[in-house]
């Protein structure tokens, strides 16, 4: 209670080489001193000479930052940890000197084809000052739980198919990623090979349904269908089919 931080630093997402300033403001009962720290991976260290309220930075690599504020009575508090995310590759036609911090998409999600039950991951990334927040949509409907750069579904269902896109927003505005189609199916996806050697680009879904009847109302029970279905199932699975086999 002796020291109150009145302005916390904020996370940013910027292109490499971009110059900006992290700010921290505090109030106390006596004069205050500031000291900035940074953390890269698991290494946390004091930044020599960084003893002002403002910390000028030229973006080189993604790091975390915090500021310690102390008074003459050995009271001390730390600001929030903030992330400075640095993008090595940025969108073309974006002169940093003209950029006002509005969200700019630098990584769009890609079309996915996934088997039912397998994991799905889509990724979007944007620059922004402050760092953008993210919200994913499917078929125009908001996905309440998907609020990070990476959309993850651990076990997909057919109902997860659809058109996905992501909105990145901050106090300067919002920007939308490109829309991509996600296909969830019961079988492996692949390319159909045309006879002349060119790929037709179609999706090949190989499913076999085997039905063996042993019992007939006006005929003695048969012995072969069980064995035939068993052997045909293994043969078709070896050829890449997903097999559903039924008896009687």
Describe this structure in words.
The chain is mainly beta. The chain has three domains: 4-87, Immunoglobulin-like (Sandwich); 104-185, Sandwich (Immunoglobulin-like), CATH 2.60.40.10; 207-246, no CATH class. It is 6% helix and 48% strand. It is built from one helix and 24 strands. The chain has one helix at residues 224-238, and strands at residues 3-7, 12-15, 19-23, 25-28, 32-40, 43-46, 54-58, 63-71, 76-78, 82-87, 104-107, 112-115, 120-123, 125-127, 133-138, 141-142, 150-153, 162-170, 173-176, 180-185, 191-193, 199-203, 207-212, 242-247. The strands form eight sheets. Strands 2, 5, 6, 8, 9 and 10 form a six-stranded mixed beta sheet that branches. It is elongated and about 100 Å long. The N and C termini lie far apart (78 Å). The model is unreliable at 191-203 (pLDDT under 50).
Describe the secondary structure blueprint for this structure.
Elements: E1 3-7, E2 12-15, E3 19-23, E4 25-28, E5 32-40, E6 43-46, E7 54-58, E8 63-71, E9 76-78, E10 82-87, E11 104-107, E12 112-115, E13 120-123, E14 125-127, E15 133-138, E16 141-142, E17 150-153, E18 162-170, E19 173-176, E20 180-185, E21 191-193, E22 199-203, E23 207-212, H1 224-238, E24 242-247
Parallel strand pairs: 2-10, 12-20, 23-24
Antiparallel strand pairs: 1-4, 3-7, 5-6, 5-8, 8-9, 8-10, 11-14, 13-17, 15-16, 15-18, 18-19, 18-20, 21-22
Summary of the model, kept short:
InterPro entries: Caspase-like_dom_sf (IPR029030), Caspase-related_regulators (IPR052039), Ig-like_dom (IPR007110), Ig-like_dom_sf (IPR036179), Ig-like_fold (IPR013783), Ig_sub (IPR003599), Ig_sub2 (IPR003598), Pept_C14_caspase (IPR011600). The chain is mainly beta. Helix content is 6%, strand content 48%.
